[in-house]
Amino acid sequence: MLCAGKKSYFAAAVCIITVTSMLAISYLRLQRLSHQPKVIQEGKRCRGKIANSTITALKGNKTFIISPYFDDREGKVTRLIGIVHHEDVKQLYCWFCCQPNGKIYVSKAKIDVHSDRFGFPYGAADIVCLEPENCDPTHVSIHKSPHGNIDQLPRFEIKNRKAETFSVDFTVCISAMFGNYNNVLQFIQSMEMYKILGVQKVVIYKNSCSHLMEKVLKFYVEEGTVEIIPWPINSHLRVSSTWQFMQDGTHIGYYGQITALNDCIYRNMERSKFVVLNDADEIILPLKHPNWKTMMNSLQEQNPGTSVFLFENHIFPETVSSRMFNISSWNTVPGVNILQHVYREPDRKDVINPRKMIVDPRKVIQTSVHSVLHAYGNSANVPMDVALTYHCRKALQRDLPRESLIRDTTLWRYNSSLILNVNKVLSQTTLQAQK
């Protein structure tokens, strides 16, 4: 016996710890070896059909692939953003076809279902595979088995293979637009506020919207501000419009919002310095700075090593209006006029306000809606005197009298530019007649 002859409790304890550590190291080494890519075929051409849909269902496997991304932050891996059944999907394999030598490698995937599933049977997942050392694959296929015919499997292009210089400073991720969305005026106001604050790109995961909203989206796409990612998740799963499972037979919460947010971070990892995670009815408003760039420069200087900045969400109920900025030409446009909503609800006792985020996407591994789940670096709560998330929506504290609300006119600092810009958009989209 390795521990024979040791009489003291201390020596025995050291011995047990040593043996346990050796076994753990051996187990981890075996686990890593089991995930190493193995050549299964040679001399093949990659002939599988390239997947072009945002959401691709794997046959009979309760697995849906969004997109794979190259990730070399902890080794050379392909990380696929997907949706899986948290109990039924236990085993997946990445099939890499390396050209020009035609070798096909199979790598066992690590399936990491995100912890923020909120009780739904399906959840966002990272499907992570080690890549072959002597190959930089451009595409990958996913299969439930290490055996089969690669020609029958859809092929997915691996994004982020080449590091790029940032093309923009700020990208806003909005997920998901659903329910025949028709809050046109507030959407335009949010878009123009984002641009005033320094945003160059807005990525929208679109499930459904009204015909009028389609017209507005087309304008912003042609302008170069908006990128539309089709999000037909209800073609694959029974979706809920709430975030918490209600035992109602639905598969996934809030139209798969968490999956879309994670995809948006990886999609913009190499092209945007910061990614902003909020909804179309939310605006992160700086109080001490004129725009996001100066605010983030200051926050990063004050918080070295921080990669995630969280901004407290405050409700400005759409049912309580100011008489200011009742612009008659806007009254025919469906939606809320945020300039008229400058009364916010007070904090609720024993309730922590949720937060929305501005993150360094290269430091995020997994995100939820109001916080990151895994990241390199620290998270920092931004004080409310520096910035807050303006959220104009239905009241949460519906019984509060008007005098109990807090008048907060921070938004009015931008009113001249905002009115001018919104009028230009309404004119150019012919939603109102030119004057």
From TrEMBL:
<dbReference type="GO" id="GO:0005737">
    <property type="term" value="C:cytoplasm"/>
</dbReference>
<protein>
    <recommendedName>
        <fullName>Glycosyltransferase family 92 protein</fullName>
        <ecNumber>2.4.1.-</ecNumber>
    </recommendedName>
</protein>
<keyword id="KW-0472">Membrane</keyword>
<dbReference type="GO" id="GO:0016020">
    <property type="term" value="C:membrane"/>
</dbReference>
<keyword id="KW-1133">Transmembrane helix</keyword>
<dbReference type="InterPro" id="IPR008166">
    <property type="entry name" value="Glyco_transf_92"/>
</dbReference>
<dbReference type="Pfam" id="PF01697">
    <property type="entry name" value="Glyco_transf_92"/>
</dbReference>
<feature type="transmembrane region" description="Helical">
    <location>
        <begin position="9"/>
        <end position="28"/>
    </location>
</feature>
<keyword id="KW-0328">Glycosyltransferase</keyword>
<keyword id="KW-0812">Transmembrane</keyword>
<comment type="similarity">
    <text>Belongs to the glycosyltransferase 92 family.</text>
</comment>
<dbReference type="GO" id="GO:0016757">
    <property type="term" value="F:glycosyltransferase activity"/>
</dbReference>
<keyword id="KW-0808">Transferase</keyword>
